[in-house]
Structure formats: C-alpha cells, structure tokens
Write a structure and sequence with these properties.
The chain has 7 helices and 10 strands. By secondary structure, it is of the alpha/beta class. A 6-stranded mixed sheet has the order 6-7-8-3-9-10, sandwiched between helices. It has a 4-stranded antiparallel sheet with strand order 2-1-4-5, with helices on one face. A hairpin with a 2-residue loop joins strand 4 and strand 5.
Length: 224
C-alpha cells in the first residue's frame, strides 16, 4: 500500500476563552494518492474545522499534519503559505471569485502568487484549464456574467492552477442544483481516476458522499 499523501495524528483544535470550545478532538486521518474521501456529519460536528487544519489554513492546538511525509505543524507562516500554493488546491461552497477580475485572471492568481511560471506560461495554463472544464471562450468574462455552475467550474480551475496533488473542497456542491452538482462530481472523479489526485471533500450531499471511495463521519469533533 502506498504511503499517505496527507496524514493527521491526534489532531485537536480548541478555541480558547472563558469556556473553551473543542472543534476537533483527537482526530487521526489519512488519504492516499488517487483517493476521494468524503467527510460527513451534522452541522457543527467539526467537518470544516478538520478540513481547514488539513489544508494548513488553521493551526492545531495539539497533534500533527504531514503532507508527503513532511510535518507541517512547526513550519513558519511563509513556509506554510508556499506549501499550500504548491501542493494544495481549495474549492469552497461560495466560489470567492474576485468580481473585478476576468475569469482568466481569477484562474491565474495562484500561479502569480507562486511565481514559478512566466506570465505567458501562466495564461497558457489558465486557458488550458478552462478548456478542460468546458469554459473555452470565457476567459475575458467577469464572474457576474456566469451561471452558478460556471463560476464553480472556474473555482475548480483556479484550485488546479499550480498542479496540486491534493484538492480540498468544502461543500463544493452546496450552492448548486442537481445537474451542476453532478457536473462538479464528474470533474472530481476524473481528476482522481485520470490524474491520481487526492480529493477530500466536506459534504452534506449524500449522493456525492456515497460516490466517494470512502466516507469519514464526524460527530462532536471526533471521527466516529
């Protein structure tokens, strides 16, 4: 069996305060290359909190997160940012496209931040990703000119901009109708099967969850 591309051990996240709140409580988690994992559970169960810890968007109170065997907990902020840009892609329920920028500019933003390609190379890759996702000819449009499903596909293209091994998705179909939900799932499944991506998705969508390779169910901050 191949080694996990992402692994958490004894992960805990506690919000400090007069009455501390435990969001994630001693979770062990791992996912391998070419695997699609759904994190399920009721609202407030800790699903998104776990996803943000795995994606290095939040820091654990206790425990560790390793990506490709590299312990990420003790990295500096700059090192964590670089690792996120290089190896992780993010898709959220609300696409968070910047309204004043074109579709192509939105897709190219992670590449500009990583600064590993020339401007021409960034734009060529952005156009290629948009074409792969059925959005050829949309490069100069603004997000407000797109449907909800089209905006989410742009968000997927942006998440894939730097060629990450791991895609983290928080309720990626939560704002979409059934047709567009299926379209997003088909994109995810193709990325897993054809490119060996690892996809971890938080979802209330039982159809999406059941179609994943594995489900991790959470309650009260713990994996059940």
């Amino acid at each position: 069996m191949t080694a996990p591309v992402i692994e958490a051990r004894k992960l805990k996240r506690i919000l400090p305060g007069l009455i501390p709140v435990t969001l994630v409580d001693g979770v062990d988690f791992q996912a391998r290359s070419g695997e699609m994992v759904a994190i399920t559970g009721a609202s407030g169960s800790g699903k998104s909190s776990l996803l943000y810890l795995l994606g290095l968007l939040d820091e654990p109170t206790e425990g560790s997160v390793a990506i490709d065997g590299q312990d990420c907990v003790h990295l500096s902020d700059a090192e964590r940012t670089h690792l996120r840009l290089e190896r992780l892609g993010f898709v959220f329920q609300f696409h968070f496209l910047l309204p004043e920028f074109s579709v192509l500019d939105n897709v190219c933003m992670p590449m500009k931040k990583l600064d590993a390609l020339s401007t021409d190379e960034q734009e060529d890759r952005g156009r290629h990703l948009l074409k792969e996702l059925g959005l050829e000819g949309y490069e100069k449009k603004l997000p407000e000119q797109l449907s909800g499903g089209e905006r989410q596909r742009v968000a997927v293209a942006r998440a894939l901009a730097n060629g990450p091994r791991i895609l983290l998705a928080d309720e990626p179909t939560g704002n979409l109708d059934s047709k567009n939900s299926h379209a997003v799932f088909d994109i995810f499944r193709g990325l897993v099967q054809d490119e060996g991506k690892t996809i971890i998705t938080v979802t209330h969508d039982q159809g999406l969850a059941k179609s994943c390779d594995r489900q991790v169910h959470m309650a009260d901050g713990r994996v059940m």
